[in-house]
Amino acid sequence: MARVLINFPQRAKPGEVIEIKTLIQHSMETGYRLDNKGTTIPRDIINRFTCTYNGEEVFRADLFPAISANPFIAFSTVATVSGELVFSWTDDRGQTQTETRPLSVE
Amino acid sequence: MRVLPTAALGLAATTALAAGIVPEERRSGYDFASPEIRAMQDDDTANPGMLWVSQGEALWAERAGAAGRSCVDCHGDARDSMKGVAARYPAFDGSSARPLDLEQRINQCRSQHQNAAPLPWESGDLLALTAFVAQQSRGLPIAVAADPELAPFSALGEKLFRQREGQLNLSCNQCHDDNWGKRLAGNVIPQAHPTGYPVYRLEWQSLGSLQRRLRNCMTGVRAEPYDYGAPEAVALELYLMERARGMAMDSPAVRP
Prior knowledge:
Chain A is an all-beta fold. Chain A has strands at residues 4-7, 11-12, 17-24, 46-53, 56-62, 72-78, 83-91, 96-105. Chain A has a five-stranded mixed β-sheet with strand order 2-8-7-4-5, with no helix packed on it. In chain A, strands 1-3-6 form a three-stranded antiparallel β-sheet, with no helix packed on it. Chain B is mainly α. Chain B is 44% helix and 7% strand. In chain B, β1 and β2 (98-100) form a beta hairpin.
């Protein structure tokens, strides 16, 4: 399980635009590097990040090898009703990490 | 007799050089970093070093080793017990009669009190614990003990700082005392104050210790780097911390 930091206001008013910041620990191995024996280190990057808000996708990003290790992704969405934000990161090994955070709108 | 004036001159020159950077002119690596990097460090939700801090916080409460004890069991809440601790390291260790840096102190605790295997240098767990402990000293002034037992080690560190080495035949002070603020290739030469270790270095794409940074510089001047944990490396760390005495800690810092 990789370490993840997710930050956004815990409470928001209906219609308010909230900024969501995410940070995940991942080596983002580009596939262009060689190890000390000269063999290519296989590419292993997070290639997709999605965020759903009460089941509806509000943000998605495709990531490519030029993106740094431990990618930081910030985006915004409109708070409508209380519910859950679900974040998921999928890498080249097919591993998906999913995190859920509550948002209260009043 | 003719030798004497020259010797005296030489000594005077050494003393002038030994003065280094005057306290008012000291600046941390943060001051040399770009506004973007500073913003990244200042925002805990964007500072990648915080990933290791949060891992360290989890490890702090995790039982380890044959003793089945966690850091919490002895030290309690790190927010109180570890406040200012990182600012005092390297510190003198009576049992081994030499200074230990924070990483070595954590590993000593592991072997003596937890009966656990020491964590390898630069391993994720050791960096995480060090980062978590160091974060508790954020904003506090560096305050290495004025311990007479540390004096010979600090003197060794200073000697190494001023010793030319490697194929480029450069000493640390030639860049960091005499030419700070100028550029080396595309980068500004900082003053080498270890305020923010372990640091997240963009070049490394990872958190790393002060020893890793020192090895980096030594490889840069094409010298053979000290092994991790070598007495010379710790002496150099000690001298650098004394040189930065009073400057505010900013771990986990972000540097280019």
